[in-house]
């Protein structure tokens, strides 16, 4: 599985030389390194939402973008979510990423993830050419002018020794290119963990990196989904897992100081109820405890899965892509973790926003109203513009007035048509000021509306690509990436089909 070191060295040198023009050209030199401490929650890139908009609404200046993978096993070309309609291009997320960077933030593109790692479409599992893997990494790095790439390696990819070796060799090639051109580059590995540190398979990934001379800057542990049939104190287990990783890193990197070792540690929580169930629930109190611990230890990265889950839209429910499963306000976890980013400061002038009532039920064809109130929380009052998003078909929103001075209020009217589809929807009410953006959530339930599915029925023999919708067993489903033969509702929340609700 390993070529002769002499051959590899020659290939690495040649490819490094070939890559100097790309890495050293144009705006690549302007890339700003990430802060020494960074909060970067995961953004689910398949939902069709704007990362720049959610970054502003949540207060998370940095995002980890999930995921990059090949469309088919054996390919060397990565796409966002493996969707051939979402190539590595400035036309796909480029404007959003520039907006985030213009606000002083950045994104961390992440390769792999659960689906890629179980289907052979993680690029180093899929592609057998080390140089082409390095080229793919370089294209992401330069297209989006970022400084860190993440490798999310779990499940089957942890057992693919050839893929592990190719990945680390490709990272070394990329690092040599970056060093030759003076380009800042960081590499993070996101790995599953036990409550006491990495399992042997995850540790083997790092050992192989050391063998190949690939520098790992951050080891980001997924401190959730333990699946050991025990009730967990998720904050305590994060701390013991972090200490376990520190001890493992100390053996791998014996010349590093304690501060340097802690500075290699990253933590990713799964907010609310994780995939195992209520026995592994990460609460807001857990978040505050983990925040204080992370600051005291000087770890590098604090994250969670995922930004779109940071709301209380399904209290008492199971793990889902779009809500936490616990009672909370929208962006509660983001607001606890956001100050972790070093150099972050609260706006001089700031405000809050709330909707009362926070929910309502209407018959299709009628309207619901709520009072949207704002209040000054810091500094002076500022002009706040109001908008609503997440509106289903057949629903419109209006504000009277459309903007207020912080401290004032407006009436939100949600009007529905007779053709509106029955169901419950989370409406985001966003208040935008010169120095801050905040969001409240209004839950709208529509009864007596349309119930007929409009999407074409799912077919076992049809090929679907990311974004396509089908109807199946009374629900509408949206494909997150390319798929063939996977039945909606049978592959779980990490599967290809996203449940858009009853139709």
UniProtKB/TrEMBL annotation:
Gene3D superfamilies hit by this protein: Carbohydrate-binding module superfamily 5/12, Glycosidases
CDD domains associated with the record: ChiC_BD, GH18_PF-ChiA-like
One GO CC term, this protein: extracellular region
Signal peptide: 1-30
Organism name: Streptomyces filamentosus
Keywords in alphabetical order: Carbohydrate metabolism, Chitin degradation, Chitin-binding, Glycosidase, Hydrolase, Polysaccharide degradation, Signal
Reactions catalysed, as given in the entry: Random endo-hydrolysis of N-acetyl-beta-D-glucosaminide (1->4)-beta-linkages in chitin and chitodextrins
InterPro entries: CBM5/12, CBM_sf_5/12, GH, GH18_Chitinase, Glyco_hydro18_cat
GH18 domain ranges (all copies): 37-327
Pfam family, one: CBM_5_12
SMART domains: ChtBD3
EC number in record: 3.2.1.14
Protein name: chitinase
GO terms of molecular function: carbohydrate binding; chitin binding; endochitinase activity
GO BP terms, alphabetized: chitin catabolic process; polysaccharide catabolic process
PANTHER family with a match to the protein in the record: BIFUNCTIONAL CHITINASE/LYSOZYME-RELATED (PTHR42976), GH18 DOMAIN-CONTAINING PROTEIN-RELATED (PTHR42976:SF1)
């Amino acid at each position: 599985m390993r070529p002769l070191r002499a051959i590899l060295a020659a290939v690495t040198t040649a490819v490094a030389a070939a890559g100097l023009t790309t890495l050293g050209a144009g705006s690549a030199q302007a890339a700003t390194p990430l802060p020494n401490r960074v909060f970067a929650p995961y953004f689910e890139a398949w939902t069709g939402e704007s990362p720049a908009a959610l970054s502003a609404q949540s207060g998370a200046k940095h995002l980890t973008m999930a995921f990059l993978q090949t469309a088919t096993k054996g390919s060397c070309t990565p796409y966002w979510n493996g969707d051939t309609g979402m190539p590595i291009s400035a036309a796909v997320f480029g404007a959003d990423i520039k907006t985030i960077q213009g606000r002083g933030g950045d994104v961390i593109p992440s390769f792999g993830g659960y689906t890629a790692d179980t289907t052979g479409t993680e690029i180093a599992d899929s592609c057998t050419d080390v140089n082409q893997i390095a080229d793919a990494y370089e294209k992401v790095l330069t297209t989006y002018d970022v400084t860190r790439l993440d490798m999310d390696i779990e499940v089957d990819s942890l057992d693919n020794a050839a893929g592990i070796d190719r990945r680390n060799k490709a990272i070394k090639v990329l690092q040599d290119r970056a060093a030759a051109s003076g380009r800042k580059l960081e590499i993070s590995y996101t790995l599953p963990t036990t409550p006491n540190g990495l399992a042997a398979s995850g540790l083997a990934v790092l050992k192989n990196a050391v063998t190949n001379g690939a520098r790992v800057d951050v080891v980001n542990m997924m401190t959730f989904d333990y699946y050991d049939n025990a009730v967990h104190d998720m904050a305590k287990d994060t701390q013991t897992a972090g200490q376990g990783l520190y001890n493992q890193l100390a053996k791998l990197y014996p010349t590093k100081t304690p501060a340097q070792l802690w500075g290699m540690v990253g933590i990713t929580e799964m907010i609310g109820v994780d995939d195992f169930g209520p026995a592994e629930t990460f609460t807001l109190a857990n978040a505050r405890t983990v925040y204080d611990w992370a600051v005291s230890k000087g770890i590098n990265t604090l994250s969670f899965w995922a930004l779109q889950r940071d709301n209380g839209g399904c209290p008492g429910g199971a793990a889902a892509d779009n809500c936490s499963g616990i009672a909370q306000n929208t962006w509660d976890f983001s607001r606890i973790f956001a100050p972790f980013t070093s150099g972050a400061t609260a706006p001089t002038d700031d405000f809050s926003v709330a909707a009362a009532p926070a929910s309502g039920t209407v018959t299709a064809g009628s309207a619901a109203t709520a009072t949207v109130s704002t209040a000054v929380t810091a500094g002076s009052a500022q002009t706040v513009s109001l908008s609503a998003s997440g509106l289903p078909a057949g629903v419109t929103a209006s504000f009277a007035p459309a903007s207020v001075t912080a401290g004032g209020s407006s009436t939100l009217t949600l009007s529905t048509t007779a053709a509106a589809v029955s169901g419950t929807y989370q409406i985001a009410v966003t208040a935008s000021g010169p120095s801050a953006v905040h969001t409240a959530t209004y839950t709208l339930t529509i009864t007596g509306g349309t119930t007929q599915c409009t999407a074409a029925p799912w077919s076992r023999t049809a090929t679907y690509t990311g974004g396509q919708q089908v109807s199946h067993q009374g629900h509408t489903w949206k494909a997150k990436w390319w798929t063939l033969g996977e039945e909606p509702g049978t592959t779980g929340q990490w599967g290809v089909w996203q449940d858009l609700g009853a139709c």
